[in-house]
Write a structure and sequence with these properties.
Elements (H helix, E strand, L loop, with lengths): L13 H8 L3 H14 L1 H7 L16 H4 L3
């Protein structure tokens, strides 16, 4: 999500990105996820994570949206 939003030098969790952009985490996720899914260069990396256990920051995101049951 960082790269899709133009953050190349620094990495931010979804919670931090939401605060920076003045949105709640669900809205920020929906906005960026939609963009990521429309761009093969971003999407190919996103789909590599198959399970919740692979999430690097499960407490700082909306993991249920990333890994739908």
């Amino acid at each position: 999500m960082n790269l899709a939003l133009g953050y190349v030098e620094e990495q931010f969790c979804l919670k931090c990105l939401s605060e920076i952009h003045g949105q709640d985490m669900d809205s920020m996720f929906d906005f960026v996820y939609g963009y990521i899914q429309s761009r093969d260069c971003f999407k190919k990396e996103w789909v590599k994570m198959k399970t919740r256990e692979e999430c690097p920051l499960p407490d700082f995101c909306v993991i249920n949206k990333c890994f739908k049951v």
